[in-house]
Design brief:
alpha+beta, Immunoglobulin-like, eleven-stranded mixed β-sheet, 28% helix
């Protein structure tokens, strides 16, 4: 092959590169309308789908992952149809999404009792998606469903733990996006209960064989534990008083406010029938084995605050009997100098 042939071939190769560049440009020019359609699809379809579907799902997911921690509930100004409820709580999240959450009305109900009937509705304030958000609410609430509130009080009184859910509809605004998205705030909290107020102690007792000006013949100091996170203003509370299955009198505690996390000390007074108590002290096993310690039982009778009946507390306290052991033998000997022997003051061995 000669030099002329090589030149011709080389020339042909150089010329063949130019149509490729022009072909790409030509393709874009020729199919510009297809690229325009693709751009329109991205702008008109994909972006709205992200804003309308992906962002709300992300916001709801982040809200679901957040943790609501109950620090305490305080119930004051209790009336027949209303009360003031203060809730102190903390919301924890990963803080990765910057967002603002609108205020909302949260229904509070027992998670493990169907149907989910709210016992309280709370106006929660606006919050943010910060890692640690303190949420404190104090408001007067109307008692819309006294039965639901009574049931909550019964569960709180009886159980070691119980689960309470807060649920409400609200809106969230993610940083950088002007639109607000509808989300559901739903958190279930496991909170400690009162366990029947087990551990209540009555000591520093005195007995009189004659009733005083209030009609009482027994007084003492009551120590009432509150293991829960809920503090209650009950007011003046009376209890049925039972001994060995028979009602023997009434117990009174005035201006009762059971504070959470404390052993609450209150003066208690009672009107008790002397006969059944003296008979029990003279019978086995109380005259010998228990050294005069008698197992009294109390059950809620009335709850009145500022002249108003609080049946949602009364009905909860009247659901269960609570046993409180009291050293009546020692108190009787100390107060009036009487010791009841086995068989009673009349002599003889009275076995029961």
């Amino acid at each position: 092959m000669g030099e002329n042939d090589k030149a011709i071939i080389s020339h042909s190769e150089n010329v063949s590169e130019k149509p490729r560049r022009r072909g790409c440009v030509g393709h874009c020019v020729k199919f510009w309308w297809a690229y325009l359609i693709l751009l329109i699809v991205v702008v008109v379809v994909v972006v709205p789908v992200v804003l309308l579907v992906a962002v709300p799902k992300m916001a709801q997911h982040k809200l679901d992952e957040a943790e609501l921690i109950l620090d305490g509930i305080t119930v004051t100004n209790t009336k027949t149809g209303s009360m003031t409820m203060a809730i102190n709580s903390t919301i924890k999240s990963d803080g990765k999404v910057k967002a603002n959450i609108d205020p909302f009305i949260g229904d509070m109900y027992l998670e493990d009792l169907e149907p989910h009937t709210p016992f309280a509705r709370i106006n929660f304030p606006a919050t943010t998606a910060d890692k640690l958000q303190t949420v404190n609410v104090t408001q007067e609430i109307e008692i819309a469903d006294a039965h639901a509130l009574t049931t909550f009080n019964q569960w709180l009184l009886a159980n070691e733990t119980l689960r309470v859910t807060v649920k409400g509809k609200t809106h969230v605004k993610v940083s950088g996006i002007s639109k607000k998205y509808s989300v559901t705030f739903k958190k279930t909290i496991e909170m400690p209960g009162l366990m029947h107020l087990d551990g209540t102690i009555v000591n520093q007792t005195t007995i009189s064989l004659e009733n005083d000006e209030l009609g009482n013949n027994f007084r003492g100091q009551a120590y009432i534990p509150n293991r829960s996170l809920v503090s209650f203003e009950l007011g003046n509370v009376t209890f049925h008083n039972y001994l060995l299955g028979a009602e023997v009198g009434t117990v009174f505690i005035d201006n009762l406010f059971v504070r959470a996390g404390e052993v609450n000390q209150y003066l208690m007074r009672a009107t008790i029938e002397n006969g059944p108590v003296l008979n029990a002290l003279g019978a086995h096993p109380y005259c010998d084995e228990t050294k005069g310690v008698l197992p009294f039982q109390i059950r809620g009778k009335t709850v009145v605050n500022h002249g108003q009946d609080l049946n949602y507390f009364r009905d909860a306290l009247s659901t269960y009997n609570q046993t409180v052991e009291i050293d009546i033998g020692g108190t009787l000997q100390k107060s009036v100098g009487i010791t009841i022997p086995c068989g009673g003051l009349g002599g003889g061995d009275n076995h029961s």
